[in-house]
Amino acid sequence: MKHIHHPLLMLLLLVSNICHAYEFIYGDDSRTGTLFAKDPIVVFHGGRYLMYYSIPPHNSRDWEGWNIGIAASEDLKHWQRIGEITPQAEYEAKGLCAPGAIVRNDTIHLFYQTYGGGRTDAICHAWSTDGLTFVRDTTNPIFRPTGSWNCGRAIDAEVVAYKGKYFLYFATRDPQFERQLLGVATAPLGTDFRRSDWTLALDAPILQPELPWEGKCIEGATVIEHKKKLYMFYAADYNNCPQQIGLAMSKDGIHWTRCSDEPFLRNGLSSEWNESESGHPCIYRDRQGQTHLFYQGNNTHGKHWLLTSVPLKWTKKGPQIIYPALPSLPDGGRGALVIDADAPD
């Protein structure tokens, strides 16, 4: 991790309000010399918080694909890079990234995607008792969708326990490989997450791009339960188009209703650190019960990527972002526009 004195971070802070509105800023320059971290997921394990995220290939290794970085924190604000997950099996040789994770019985279960296979990319599973070394599932890849509505690809896994079963949310594309869609599979609570336990819960998309700001893509779903309902934060539109974060709600984990026709969290204004996008979210409730929305952003159209988070509060209408008092910008703006959720009953 590079702290606030890193020249690039200093520049970003000078031209944005990140130090006023966000809980931290994190970038990983271990691979390319440029701060680059995407697709965060956070768990608590072994007395500390662990964040898994996507990292790019080394500049000098043309054969290398995307991998997974690991950072640790005591307080969710100060993060230190502690390791990475690299390919072990042939099916992940081209790359592995975009992790999802849960903790069950002191074991971290990681759900990640293969990368570089196009239509053949699929969801894989591995587990760890130390958070650093992972044992691969012998049935990998554990899931890819069937049906005429999709291309057979599965990426961006999110697993959550709800109403007596596990739900696996994933992104796929239409048969033409143009539009990114969300789907869901389920497995029994007693599962060891092997391939044979997962069943497609709906032979159709559960959410697909419909609104203008969603472009041709909905991906990166992250889900949290609140008062017996599930709330899904999702990434809308492809990277840097810009990607923004939307919100939907469900009472059964399968059928979803948008909470607003506007983004829950937009990309930043011109010259702000997240001008190009605010994307690929991770929703997380900490040990004290505080909910945090982690996400990625950049203002270079993808030449670098940073991670951050904002705290949320829960109201009768659903989640809302807690912003400290923000200083007005020279043009009268106040940073990223946030639309409060108006969750349907």
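(the above was protein one; protein two follows)
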Amino acid sequence: MLRPLFIHLSHAPWARQFITRFVFARRAASRFIAGETPEDAIRVIRGLNAKGISASVDHLGENVLSESDATRAADDYLTILDQICASGVKSHASVKLTQLGLDLGESVCLNNMRRILSRARDCGTFVRVDMEGSDYTERTLTVVRTLKHDYGFDNVGAVIQSYLYRSEKDVRELAEEGVRVRLCKGAYSEPPDRAFPKKKDVDGNYVKLTRILLEAVSAKPANGNGLYPAIATHDEKMIRAAKSYAVEKKAPREAFEFQMLHGIRRDLQESLVREGYNVRVYVPYGSEWYPYVMRRLAERPANLWFILSNIFR
């Protein structure tokens, strides 16, 4: 019941204007957001690195309305990449293509992505292209493929959402092409003709796609095919399934990683590190935190009660 509400609120201008006025809302957001500046993000990443956890930093924003805003967003990514490089922290970057001008035309987006990927390559790091709503799925994968195959960027990867019916086909094709995939469940509101409406089916597809990715890793040397899949979940059932299948297919622990979100299940993150698994945490920062936080609450409404209990202690 709460999931549709939070997804609706994430898109509602009136709700954003009302909710973001309150100090307690910013305190709630701080559970999931590193802060508003690149320096805030680097500070959080240092803390994660000290625990043996890598990061993927995201400068929050989406659906820009002008080329100048898209250029400014790309400039912000160049700034954080420079700070990653200068500080020596272990972090990738995550980007949303609508923040970089996808709605304004593929060429605008490609030009901004080429700038970001060039800087990331100079710093020896990787850029993950986040997946947004299903209206953007095909266009997003087209941009990723163009950047990898036409422009020769090996430091770019995609995200696939297990709630979409099309995702098995996408995962198989991307694995065959050597495109690195982060697998998540999905956090947007989707119609039943595009996405599994029932959680059990989303979970079942997640396990199936995890197996496809781990099988692809075990079939070829990880460094040879460039796959290195990212299993992005806080669901311990999904994690146990991934561990079990990796053992069955003899996929070494260094050939894949688990990914989680900043502020969620820190105990599980650290436990996986102690077990010898690679763990990466998604670290968002910036002033455009409202849609991101609403989607986190939609994914797991129990986060709301956790936040409220901490705010009103």
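Reviewer note on protein two: The mean pLDDT is 89.
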